[in-house]
Amino acid sequence: MNTVQSEPRGARAALPTVPAAGPQAEAEKGPVTTVQAARLVAAREIRVKLRDKTFLFSTLLFLLIAAAATVLPPLLSGGPSTVAATEQSAGPLRAAGLEVRTVPDDRAAEQAVRDDEVDAAVVSGPAVLALDEVPDDVVAALSTRPQVRLLNPDALNPVAAFLVPFVFAFIFYITSQVFGVQIAQSVIEEKQTRIVEILAAAVPVRALLAGKMVAGTVLALGQIVLVALVAVAGMVFGDGGGLLPLLGPAIGWFVPFFLVGFVLVAAMWAAAGALVNRQEDLTGVSTPVQLVVMLPFFAVIFLNDNATAMRILSYLPFSAPTAMPLRLFTGDAPVWEPVVALLLLLVAAGAFLLAGARVYEGALLRTNGRISIRTAWRTRESVS
Amino acid sequence: MSVRRRTAVGGRRTSVTAVTSVLRLDGVDRSFGDRQALKNVSFDVVAGRMTGFVGGNGAGKTTTMRIILGVLAADAGRVTWQGAPLNPQVRRRFGYMPEERGLYPKMSVREQVVYLGRLHGMTAAAASRATEALLERVGLAERGGDLLETLSLGNQQRAQIAAALVHGPEVLVLDEPFSGLDPLAVDTVVGVLRERAAAGAAVLFSSHQLDVVERLCDDLVIIADGVIRAAGDREQLRRTYTSPRFELVVESDAGWLRDQPGVLLVDLDGARAVFDLAPGADEQPVLHAALARGPVRAFRPLAPSLTEIFREVTQ
């Protein structure tokens, strides 16, 4: 039997043992490093996202909101008041830049106010008439202003003090949720379609994770930078530019905090995505992830005038990305504090990244049913 | 039975040592919880040959293939290619078509085939060239720009084949590559795989469609309950595992064959009969007996189908 068989086998041995693609294709193939693979993965993720209509529309919407929020308020607060006055009292009002309507006497002036034709009237006395709101600019035009020296010129106006913390917290919260979910969904898509088996056979699983994280971070940061640019342009254009020098350092610190904080959250989302096999099941595993992002968000919103609480929050990894830039904005943190908080955040993000990667690797190739974190943690399935 | 099996597997082992391009599984075990899915699985996939991997549902085909691709770890045993243990760098030269199909639904066919080529280390230009050629070959050239999800299932399957082949793999592992294909598409895919094998690739494909395997494979691996029941050259297995079978067509009724010594009647339909020979029996006395009774219209050996081999070894 062996002799019969050895003939065709021998003939087969003479076959070229070169790969099917031939030497030419081989020359065009190089070994793929994890970094190169991650770059390819990230490039694909970004390319797909940039063609996604939902993503494009939501970005556009954010830009519109940013523009509206910065441009509209100064416009809506209206121009200078219109004042009805007799010719002899019109001088100082005109000099103050108010729009003066000349009336023959005080009665006509009062009637103009009652008819809502003007915002205010100046009658003899001099007295200022208005319907229901004190016209500050008219009063100022008629008053002698004492000299004012601000001892703390950087102190905040209360509106900004309320709005800015909210905006920072909101941006971090929304962005990390939206892009975190997208990372999870992209992980699930690959599991659900089973393309993950082909991918895992081709490149290290770590490269897949890294690529997704990089893509998510680039997209999230890109969107924020765009929104920030529009907001700054809006402030300059809409005359809210006075806030800029105050916001500058806070924004400058917000970027690194956001970056590292996002990596921390994204690692959790990627791991959560790897634990399930269907998009519908994501909600089940992502609740803890949502909570650890949501609770600090509300804490920062509600406790932002409690110095002790903010001090603690600004060091806790999950709230640091919003709390620390805030404290810098309100000016009650010395320079070493954000550095320490950022280092803490870095360490936490690194730890979560490692843990997330381990869960991701352990769960990614288990494509039947939901996997518990414990199982995923213990599995060291990927042979590569 | 066990003696025969050892002969077939062992004979193969000794005869392939001269060939270096062999994907070899050696004593692979794998359990899921308490269930042992693979028990001491050993077989070879030889370059330049098409190896059919046959077994019932849950027999262990997919588990074996996933272990070859490193998507699943073996509990014991080893897998080697050209004598070297598999690692990610080696596996990158493999092509894989998983059992449950999947590519990116919202990506164009061309784009994802190129992407997979690049992940396997091809340059952008080489990946594009290979993609165009392959799409042309599997009949998808005109659909290349379409999103995968807009394609029919059969066409998605063709895209899947292209995705597995784009980087010119040395080893091709295809899990049920023909399921869900219409006959025309089966022919196309069979043609493509044959070309690859002829060019020197080692091709392992699983299928439960035994007629397709019969048509396509050079070597055969049969698995049942996680145990390799037979492995080796298809004709060799045919000879080893089935008794010689003959067809006889005479002028009138062939019912007398029932009483002919050495004949195990398989099928009798008036003048036509199909029979196996009992061990040690010869077919010539049967022919003589038939001629003695009248004219013989046909007398020929029948190659038993894979189904019979399969039935024989998995009993």
From TrEMBL, chain A:
Keywords: Membrane, Transmembrane, Transmembrane helix
GO cellular component, one term: membrane
Major location category of this protein: membrane
Segments forming domain ABC-2 type transporter transmembrane: 164-356
Record membrane topology: Multi-pass membrane protein
GO MF entry, a single one: ABC-type transporter activity
Domain of life per record: Bacteria
Region (Disordered): 1-30
Pfam families according to UniProt: ABC2_membrane_3
Signal peptide feature range: none
Chain segments annotated as transmembrane: 54-76, 155-174, 214-238, 250-270, 282-303, 339-360
Entry coiled-coil feature ranges: none
Subcellular locations according to the entry: Membrane
PANTHER family per record: ABC TRANSPORTER PERMEASE, ABC TRANSPORTER PERMEASE PROTEIN NATB
Name of the protein in question: ABC-2 type transport system permease protein
Species, as recorded: Micromonospora avicenniae
UniProtKB/TrEMBL annotation, chain B:
Keywords, sorted A to Z: ATP-binding, Nucleotide-binding, Transport
Molecular function GO labels: ATP binding; ATP hydrolysis activity
Keyword Endoplasmic reticulum assigned: no
Protein name (record): ABC-2 type transport system ATP-binding protein
Domain ABC transporter: 23-250
Entry-linked Gene3D superfamilies: P-loop containing nucleotide triphosphate hydrolases
SMART domains: AAA
Secretion signal span: none
Family per record: Belongs to the ABC transporter superfamily.
Pfam families (UniProt xref): ABC_tran, DrrA1-3_C
Organism: Micromonospora avicenniae
Protein origin, superkingdom: Bacteria
